């Protein structure tokens, strides 16, 4: 045997060693090859090599399925670890991560439309990313803007998309006294989707406005989408006369599709339920 033939025989032997013969395996009299006693597919085959036919070991069908399942389980394990890691970087609390998802979305006549948009946004996130398309959730207090944004964040995180959720107040608080934190802004842009809660709730100083502009503009320049929530009225945003705000709002309106949240405050309803529950407890 020359060297190549040796390697060839060695390879076949290593497959045989990796998948040893089981007691139920048998030689099929039709082709005189070894068959698996479980799935009844061959564990050997004949291959031509340099003018001769050689019997080689191969993998039977049930073994191939087992290997594939093992590979899939490993892949899933790696994906889960990656998702855990992304969640730890998302800026969301444990409660936000576990309690705000589409399965728990209480549907009312008022939020049916925004819910549909949120689901479509998630389902089409590839296109949203490509087009740098974001959303602007606007409407009165307690109408579910933050909750809906959290649902989008969780749905995307669960499919392995890096999302960071924060608020303008947090971003500005973090920056106090440290000058322009370019590194931090760059860090935010590692997220495929950035969600910033409560535009307009930050202190409206020139310093804060400049920071807000920097954050939005860097996102815009990086061609990455963002979702913003705000209590500001869309008319107010569109027709703002103050040049300092206009600069910020124009950028936002260019890349964020406005979604109106209406109806009664969920928070009021929750408070009412809580009050009723406590009255029952204290006064019964
Ligand atoms: N569709 C929903 N299903 C279940 N709970 C909801 C839903 N929408 C809102 N909530 C709950 O109602 C409360 C208020 O909602 P949320 O904080 O999202 O309102 P918001 O519009 O962001 O208010 P704000 O303008 O004050 O920031 C939260 O406790 C939230 O979890
Ligand atoms: Mg909110
Ligand atoms: Zn088999």
Describe the protein in words.
With 284 residues, this protein is an alpha/beta fold. The protein has 2 domains: 1-88, no CATH class; 90-270, P-loop containing nucleotide triphosphate hydrolases (Rossmann fold, 3-Layer(aba) Sandwich). It is 53% helix and 17% strand. The chain is built from 12 helices and 9 strands. The strands form 3 sheets. A 5-stranded parallel β-sheet has the order 6-7-8-5-9. It has a two-stranded antiparallel sheet with strand order 1-2. A two-stranded antiparallel sheet has the order 3-4. Helix 9 packs parallel to helix 11. It is elongated and about 85 Å long. The chain starts with a helix and ends with a helix. Bound molecules: adenosine-5'-triphosphate, magnesium ion and zinc ion. Zinc ion (ZN) binds next to helix 2.
Task: Summarize the SSE layout with pairings.
Layout: H1 3-18, E1 26-28, E2 33-35, E3 44-49, E4 52-57, H2 61-89, H3 94-99, H4 112-123, H5 125-130, E5 134-139, H6 145-158, E6 163-167, H7 168-175, H8 182-188, E7 193-199, H9 206-221, E8 226-230, H10 234-238, H11 243-255, E9 256-261, H12 266-283
Parallel strand pairs: 5-8, 5-9, 6-7, 7-8
Antiparallel strand pairs: 1-2, 3-4
Helix pairs in contact: 4-6, 9-11
Bound molecules: adenosine-5'-triphosphate, magnesium ion and zinc ion.
In this structure, how is the largest beta sheet organized?
Answer: 5 strands, parallel
Query: Which spans have pLDDT < 50 for at least 5 consecutive residues?
Result: none
Radius of gyration: 30 Å
> In angstroms, what separates the terminal alpha carbons?
95 Å
How many domains, in number, for the residues? 2
- Enumerate the strands of the largest sheet in spatial order, edge to edge or round the barrel: 6-7-8-5-9
Hetero groups bound? Answer: adenosine-5'-triphosphate, magnesium ion, zinc ion
Helicity, as a percent range: 40-55%
Round the mean pLDDT to the nearest integer and report it: 89
Structural class: alpha/beta
Give me the strand/helix succession: HEEEEHHHHEHEHHEHEHHEH
| Approximate shape | elongated
Strand fraction equals: 15-25%
